[in-house]
Specification:
Helix content is about 25%, strand content about 25%. With about 80 residues, it is an alpha+beta fold. β2 and β3 form a beta hairpin.
Length: about 80
């Protein structure tokens, strides 16, 4: 997912991560990049681990939109684990 917050404010990223945490959705990657529109403006790449559960994921997307976050779903891919 690509998530852009409407403005920089204390606890903004915490609000976004809480959407996933209370639904027990595990994240494998969080990466921030500057928007280059002003100091403190970022967007975030977030990878969610696991099978797509329509109820959980769709509700999470709706909650993010309620926070005025711009959410773009970039797709999904399989992860392969190496066995030792």
């Amino acid at each position: 997912m690509l998530i852009t917050l409407p403005e920089d404010h204390a606890g903004g990223l915490h609000q976004v991560l809480s959407v996933f945490a209370w639904r027990k959705m595990n994240l494998s990657k969080i990466e921030s990049r500057t928007l280059k529109t002003g100091l403190g403006n970022y967007f975030f790449f977030i990878n969610v681990v696991g099978k797509w559960e329509p109820v959980l994921h769709e509700n999470a997307l709706e909650e993010l939109k309620a926070l005025d976050a711009d959410v773009d779903f970039l797709g999904n891919y399989k992860e392969y684990l190496l066995e030792s």
